[in-house]
């Protein structure tokens, strides 16, 4: 156990032998509402044993409500999203893995609130800062603004906003994931939290950053086959998406808010040889055996054999074994309980990494 990760840690990401995290608030102390960003070194086996994580650095997330972080492919840039402050920040990462002072910061503003219920769109509310597979571009999902912001980040000292993709009102973009199928075939999968969709885009890279093109081809429901996007009434809220390493299957979690019944994970087949309009096919769904599946994580083996589902409200992680041929689940392998159910946002587990 490590307690050096601030108040209400929200997200984890790994780069080589280092772990990075972001906290919701309380940095540098409880008198502050800013989140914190933290870098850790994984310890090697030793005698006597050492703590598994050693703190390298701690700093401000540059805003209230740290909710997501990511590290570029080179390991030299770190990005943070602060949902309550509606800010993002980009930082340099030193050779020793420590995070430096922010070199870029942006705050988003709305002209007027969006149609999402329960104050879900009264501010821009950026929910994810995600580097693309090349590590040269940063994608920011702004749930409240119904926007996807794209930045060129050749280094943390050179940041340029390239595009602002406008989504239908009430989409609520939350998380994006990427699939690379060959040198010229990259897809992005964008989760609409409020309208319970996945939007499928192709990404084309030109010979300079300004030539990047992102094209929408398919919109598919997270709630069932053939269903249209929902109204943004918060009855169901899509959460996370993961893609298997072989590029054959996708999994997306959904959170029901009107009952305590188990939530679901939707299962999709991916066909990278079909026309982009038919790239995803809804196969089935499984119950998560818990409530509010905020995060999904596939095991790091070549077959992505196991799917871990983190249930925030029921305070547990559930692990399923996948059938790697069909994409469906073979069996429930186990459940790890962290304590009593909490049934309240921010206080249950929010992110998991496989070792």
TrEMBL record:
InterPro entries in the cross-refs: Cycloisomerase_2, Haem_d1_sf, Lactonase_7-beta_prop, WD40/YVTN_repeat-like_dom_sf
Gene Ontology molecular functions: 6-phosphogluconolactonase activity
Superkingdom in the source lineage: Eukaryota
UniProt region (Disordered), positions on chain: 41-62
Short name of any one Pfam family annotated for the protein: Lactonase
Listed PANTHER family: 6-PHOSPHOGLUCONOLACTONASE, 6-PHOSPHOGLUCONOLACTONASE-RELATED
Family, per entry: Belongs to the cycloisomerase 2 family.
Name assigned to this protein: 6-phosphogluconolactonase
Native source species: Cyphellophora europaea (strain CBS 101466) (Phialophora europaea)
């Amino acid at each position: 156990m490590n307690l050096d990760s601030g108040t209400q840690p929200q997200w984890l990401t790994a780069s080589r032998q280092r772990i990075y995290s972001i906290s919701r608030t309380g940095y540098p102390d409880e008198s502050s509402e800013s989140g914190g960003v933290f870098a850790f070194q994984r310890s090697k086996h030793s005698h006597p044993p050492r703590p598994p994580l050693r703190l390298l650095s701690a700093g401000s997330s540059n805003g209230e409500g740290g909710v997501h972080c990511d590290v570029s492919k080179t390991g030299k840039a770190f990005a943070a999203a602060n949902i309550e402050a509606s800010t993002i920040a980009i930082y340099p990462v030193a050779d020793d893995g420590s995070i430096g002072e922010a070199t870029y910061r942006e705050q988003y503003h709305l002209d007027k609130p969006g149609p999402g219920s329960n104050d879900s769109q009264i501010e821009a509310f950026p929910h994810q800062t995600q580097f693309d597979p090349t590590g040269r571009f940063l994608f920011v999902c702004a749930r409240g603004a119904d926007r996807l912001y794209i930045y060129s980040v050749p280094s943390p000292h050179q940041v340029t906003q390239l595009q602002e993709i406008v989504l239908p009102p009430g989409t609520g973009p939350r998380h994006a994931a990427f699939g690379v199928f060959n040198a010229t075939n990259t897809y992005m999968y964008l989760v609409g939290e409020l309208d319970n969709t996945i939007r499928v885009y192709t990404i084309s890279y030109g010979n300079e950053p300004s030539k990047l093109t992102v094209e929408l081809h398919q919109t598919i429901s997270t709630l069932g086959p053939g269903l249209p996007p929902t109204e943004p009434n918060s009855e169901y809220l899509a959460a996370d998406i993961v893609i298997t390493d072989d590029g054959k299957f996708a999994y997306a979690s959904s959170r029901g808010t009107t009952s305590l019944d188990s939530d679901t994970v939707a299962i999709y087949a991916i066909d990278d040889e079909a026309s982009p309009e038919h790239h995803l096919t809804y196969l089935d769904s499984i119950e998560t055996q818990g409530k509010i599946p905020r995060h999904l994580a596939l095991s790091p083996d070549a077959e992505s054999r196991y799917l871990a589902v983190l249930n925030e409200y029921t305070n547990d992680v559930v692990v399923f074994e996948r059938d790697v041929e069909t994409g469906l689940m073979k069996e429930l392998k186990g459940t790890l309980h962290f304590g009593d159910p909490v049934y309240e946002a921010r206080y249950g587990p929010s992110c998991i990494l496989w070792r």
